[in-house]
Specification:
The complex is a heterodimer of chains A (632) and B (88).
Chain A: E1 4-7, H1 12-15, E2 25-29, E3 34-38, H2 42-48, H3 51-62, E4 76-79, E5 94-99, E6 106-111, H4 115-121, E7 126-130, E8 137-142, E9 145-150, H5 159-169, E10 176-179, H6 182-185, E11 193-195, E12 199-201, H7 206-212, E13 215-221, H8 235-248, H9 250-254, H10 261-267, H11 288-294, E14 296-300, E15 310-313, H12 329-337, H13 344-357, H14 361-376, H15 392-404, H16 408-412, H17 416-423, E16 433-434, E17 437-438, H18 448-456, H19 469-472, H20 478-485, H21 499-518, H22 528-539, H23 546-566, H24 596-610, H25 620-625
Parallel strand pairs in A: 2-7, 8-13
Antiparallel strand pairs in A: 1-9, 2-3, 4-5, 4-7, 5-6, 8-9, 10-11, 10-13, 11-12, 14-15, 16-17
Chain B: E1 2-7, H1 15-19, E2 24-27, E3 30-35, H2 41-47, E4 56-60, E5 63-65, E6 76-81
Parallel strand pairs in B: 1-6
Antiparallel strand pairs in B: 1-3, 2-3, 4-5, 4-6
The chains are: A alpha+beta (632), B alpha+beta (88).
Chain lengths: 632, 88
């Protein structure tokens, strides 16, 4: 393709580091080969904050209703947030969004690392991408200079090789790269966009959207630092974090997210053998103690984060390269527990391949587990590759076949829900999905309000913007602290979907949508008052209140609902598939499930709190109250 | 009496400072406490000043349970740490 160049001057405020926003949003039309930018009004920033808020703004205003997720009309957004790249720990994050090819509704996923921070340093709060390139391309953003370049030499390569090539081409190892691997190129419906080669905007098939646009990568480099409007205003929160993070985040510093694998197995939070078993023989092999003993060689972190929660693994046979990081909790659960593979090397190898090929580990593992059950029951019985539960070599081969869409991998590349529709023979009974997206590893039979959250989530089953029952049940948790700020007494019951828990969900999912707009790590136990202080310091919004923060969250959750309804979702889609609720005959969650009537009652109360009707459709007055009528 | 088992790394302070004169022993990184029954998990933790660094799920006699469940003689209680968020 012909190289296209565009140059943007920094805004004065960003030059002087007197605000945390760059004040500029970049737009790129791949079909036309055109590049331009906008400088939104301050009210735009204050009402949506960034990240998911920005993503929904562009999807609702720039993407035609009913657009083909893999067609030129889909809009792909990389969005930093107000806090991305500031001195506050946990702000090395950004969001990526589009219409999802997996769920048909919203894809909005956040990634850690350094890309979002670097994008702001390069001069942009967000990059919005339209159209489809005629040939493989990549976007190069270097301190305000934007170029659309050929990626013919990168197409077909794995993520590690692509990052090295781009950095070598520009002779700069500090370039940060967001990219797709072969999984995205082949439009696997749950392909991820990888950042720094081991941080995924993993869920809902964003990699397939990028692949459909023939956009191999977005590479960024910037040297401006991100400022604050009033650094002194951040004093209390910074002091609180620096003096307490070693205690409050001790779990992350010691075992990282894998540290909870064993405890989650023992408490029934970890789904096992495609949701059919209550214990996994040999699960200790995947627990962090064994991982650290056998293959963890280092720790890794995101921009401005002292915690270093990520593990880095290395292994000789099978060969696992340390540059691809290591498996997180969700990955150990999906690739290990769901498939009943307890060989840590095999699970870590599958994780490495998912990073190299650019695949979401949760949907990959859950789809492989679903396939294994179909094989076990004789529903899939044709062909040379018939994967079995517990077989690590089958897991690794499945990942390779999915990424390349070869053999059975082509069917698996469409995700478990579409597989079930094609296979029939009762295979729908084995699905654990919401809006066709495979469930994360927080079992709804144990965490009932989380289950309702999966069913309501605009992105399909999702743990990120969800309320966990056990946190609302534990006095002293960050969740309870925030609920107290909203006037809700805690702790709340562990089990069931009570009105108080629905009210807690109403506040907490909105708060987490603000976190994903800011964009900030969910692991830090921020309360409303901390976020308020951070917002005031970063943007200078001295008159902001915690009520306004809640209102912003309610606005963004309503916009998300507006988008999924516009794209054809209905209240009938607000559900969990049967397998996810199958009562188990024994173990820590013996007999537990969520009754359909209880779930419906909870949803109706949530709709009422939101000002939506009985079908979950926002009423005119609720749209007016949140100032989102123009999006309708 | 009941048995409470928890990972020592969960504790916000040393066990000696928290529980006063109650019997306990260590098994690897775990603390095993022998405590009177008759109160909920939550109240038992508060009563013996057992302050935890992070949220946990309670498992009583192998079954997940609410923190308000009243403990009876012979109960074996495990407190299992959960990731995401933390104590504020």
């Amino acid at each position: 393709m012909k190289k296209v160049t565009y140059n943007v001057e920094y805004s004065e405020a960003f030059q002087k580091r007197s605000i945390a926003y760059t004040g500029k949003i970049l737009h790129v039309d791949l079909s036309k080969g055109s590049i331009w930018h906008e400088e939104p009004e301050p009210a735009f920033y204050r009402s949506l904050i960034g990240g998911r808020g920005f993503i929904l703004h562009y999807l609702l205003s720039k993407m035609p209703a009913g657009a083909d997720p893999l067609g030129p009309d889909n809009v792909l957004v990389f969005a930093a947030g107000l806090l991305t790249g500031t001195v506050l720990p946990g702000t090395g994050r950004h969001a990526v969004g589009a219409k999802s090819p997996l769920t048909g509704v919203l894809a909005s996923s956040e990634a850690g690392g350094f890309f979002g921070h670097e994008m702001k340093k390069a001069g942009f709060d967000a990059v919005v991408i339209y159209g489809q390139a005629s040939s493989p391309s990549y976007l190069w953003i270097n301190n305000g200079l934007v170029e659309l370049r050929s990626a013919e030499h990168l197409w077909g390569k794995v993520t590690g090789d692509v990052q090295e090539q781009i950095q070598a081409d520009h002779e700069d190892e500090k370039i940060r790269v967001a990219q797709i691997g072969p999984g995205g190129e082949n439009q696997v419906l749950y392909a991820a966009i990888m950042h720094d080669i081991n941080r995924a905007a993993g869920r809902s098939g964003l990699g397939a959207v990028m692949g459909s646009k023939k956009l191999k990568a977005v590479a960024v480099r910037g040297t401006r630092s991100v400022g604050l409007a009033n650094k002194a205003a951040l004093k209390d929160t910074l002091k609180w974090i620096t003096s307490t993070y070693k205690d409050s985040m001790g779990w992350a510093m010691s075992g990282g997210t894998p540290g909870s694998f064993g405890a989650n197995h023992d408490s029934g939070a970890l789904a096992i053998r495609n949701y059919t078993a209550s214990s996994l023989p040999g699960y200790e092999n995947l627990a962090h103690e064994k991982l650290f003993e056998k293959m963890v060689v280092d720790r890794d972190t995101c921009s401005h984060c002292p915690v270093r929660c990520k593990i880095v693994v290395e292994h000789q046979s099978p060969k696992i390269e340390r540059k691809y990081g290591g498996p997180e909790y969700e990955t150990l659960g999906a690739l290990g527990s769901l498939t009943a593979v307890t060989d840590a090397a095999a699970v870590s190898k599958a994780n490495e391949l998912c990073a190299a090929y650019g695949l979401d580990t949760i949907s990959t593992g859950a789809t492989v587990a679903f396939t294994m059950e179909c094989v076990e029951r004789g529903i899939i019985n044709d062909g040379s590759f018939l994967p079995e539960f517990g077989q690590g070599t089958d897991l690794i081969e499945a990942v390779r076949l999915i990424a390349r869409r070869e053999g059975l991998g082509d069917l698996m590349a469409s995700g478990s829900a579409r597989m079930a529709r094609k296979l029939g023979q009762g295979s729908e009974e084995f699905l654990a999905v919401a809006r066709k997206q495979e469930l994360p590893l927080h079992d709804p039979r144990l965490k009932n309000i989380t289950g309702m959250g999966y069913a309501l989530s605009p992105t399909g089953a999702d743990h990120m913007h969800n309320l966990f029952d056990n946190f609302a049940n534990f006095e002293g948790s960050d969740v309870c602290g925030r609920l107290n700020e909203m006037g809700i007494e805690t702790p709340l019951p562990m089990f069931g979907i009570t009105r108080e828990k629905v009210k807690a969900y109403y506040y907490d999912t909105a708060f987490k949508h603000v976190l994903d707009s800011a964009v900030i790590c969910h692991f830090y136990p921020y309360l409303y008052r901390n976020l308020l202080e951070a917002f005031q310091a970063a943007a200078g919004w001295e008159d902001m209140t915690i009520e306004e923060i809640n209102q912003i969250g309610q606005r963004i959750t309503t916009m998300a609902r507006m988008f999924i309804l516009r794209e054809g979702s209905t209240h009938d889609d607000d559900l969990l598939s049967k397998r996810a609720l199958l009562p188990l005959p024994d173990g820590p969650i013996q007999g537990r499930t969520i009754e359909k009537s209880e779930m419906e009652k909870g949803m109706q109360f949530y709709f009422k709190l939101k000002g939506w009707d009985a079908d979950g459709v926002p009423t005119q007055s609720s749209l007016e109250e949140l100032a989102v009528v123009d999006y309708a | 009496m009941l048995l409470l088992k928890l990972d020592e790394r969960l504790l916000a302070d040393s066990i000696e400072n928290m529980q006063g004169s109650i019997e306990f022993h260590r098994e690897a990184t775990f603390i095993i406490l022998e405590l009177p029954s008759g109160e909920s998990v939550q109240h038992t933790l508060e009563k013996y000043r057992i302050l935890l660094k992070q949220p946990v799920v309670a498992v009583i006699n192998g079954q997940t349970a609410d923190f308000t469940q009243v403990l009876v003689d012979g109960d074996q209680v495990r407190l299992l740490p959960q990731i995401a968020g933390g104590r504020y």
